[in-house]
Amino acid sequence: MEDCESGNLLDVCDCSGSCQYVHQLCLEKWIDVSHKKTCEICHAAYKHDYQPKNVDIEERPRRNDLACIRMVIALCMLGGFLHGCTTGSDSSNGIKFNYELLVASLLFNAYHLLIWFVFYKIKYVPEVISITWLASFTMGLLVMCWILDVYNDDVTRVFYINAFVSSIGMMLPCCLKRMRIITMYRMDIMYNQL
Hints:
Layout: E1 9-10, E2 22-23, H1 24-34, H2 63-92, H3 99-121, H4 127-148, H5 153-193
Antiparallel strand pairs: 1-2
Helix pairs in contact: 2-3, 2-4, 2-5, 3-4, 3-5, 4-5
């Protein structure tokens, strides 16, 4: 927004009018901050030979991220499997579906939702966690029921609780994304009205 005395003005995209020219220094700062290689207005690739100082987030090595994801999925599988085994062994011991079994089930599912939240925060598909949890829980339950040769209504009830919590974990990301889009849309309208 300044004149040419502040630096060289460049034509780096397909914009016209007041947005056609930009200072070289301003463009370089913007590329360093935004990590974008295209203009946000005309969506054309910038015509320049500047290399960003910060490595682009999408291109940086993701070894730490992948290690974190593997650890989270492993914890999810282990927790679901242990929960299934615990439910199967409790049913074989004649424990009826009472408050203790309900509290244990809710605590395990709180652990499941905590892992789901971590996955959501590191911007990966959190539905994977819910599917993995339900699959590993079912596997643990079936293995324990097969070993102990027991299956009753209590096992079915706890399975339904886990299926319900997993379905919440599969539907919630869609709701959160929709809420974020609606919030951004409303903020954009408010900003334009100002």
